Amino acid sequence: MNTVTGMKLFIRNYLSSLTFNYSDVLEIIILSFVVYHIMLWIRNTRAWALMKGILVMVVFILIATILHLDSILYLVGKGINVLMVAVVVIFQPELRRALEQLGEKKFLSSLIPFDMEKDGEERFSDKTINELIKGSFEMGKAKTGALIVMEKNTKLTEYIRTGIELDSLVTSQLLLNIFEHNTPLHDGAIIVRGNRIISATCYLPLSDNMELSKELGTRHRAGVGISEVTDSLTIIVSEETGKVSIAQKGKLMRGVTPEELREQLVILQEKNTNTKKFKFWKGKAKNEENINQNEGNINQ
What we know:
Blueprint: H1 3-17, H2 22-43, H3 47-66, H4 70-90, H5 92-104, H6 107-111, H7 126-141, E1 146-150, H8 157-160, E2 164-169, H9 172-179, E3 189-193, E4 196-202, H10 218-229, E5 233-237, E6 244-248, E7 251-253, H11 258-269, H12 277-282, H13 284-299
Parallel strand pairs: 1-3
Antiparallel strand pairs: 1-5, 2-4, 3-4, 5-6, 6-7
Helix pairs in contact: 7-9, 7-11
């Protein structure tokens, strides 16, 4: 019996010994889903470079094992725990953001076809959207740099505290006055919550994403940086070019048009004109009964 026949026999015997049940299939699906999203997360963060470094180390350890380099294997075994702690410390912002994104996903509402909560109110008004668009592009024409952070679900309290607290309605005139050159509030970012500017001159974390263009300055890196650690949307007006950009989820959309900015703000607005989903299910039979009674009265 040659080698090929022996391998075929081994594979056949091995496969015939395997038994699958529903729980095994479910485990495979869950693990595949988890591994896929972990790899996707790693690919979009600094951890991708770490992953490549780990693969190099794994190859090195395999070579050391094959060549019986016991001293190296001993040092690797002692240092692996320290390495794991170092990874957690170095990539704390990425791990924190990953857990935040996991918490933002509405698994329960997607599985259960009703919602016990009240109707969601819009995050800010259409007038605020119009004022933001008008102010941003007027500042762009004047080449006035600006950084406007729109708060979503993640509270920006720690960044609000770094600035000067305000409580003003969002208007294009106010935006122009805040970011005008040589004014006390022009340096730093403003944070908008709902329809109001609640803080100015705020300090934001800078992104260290190496894929960002080298021609981008501190303002753009700060806009991308806050979007990497929170779910906010940031409007950035370039002082050099006058172009308006949007930073969200660690991504930068450069040189957007007023229509594109409006589209993103409307998505962030989350205007909800629907009734309660819970009411739909709970009162479906009752509503149908009322409709039928009304139709009967009309026919009479």
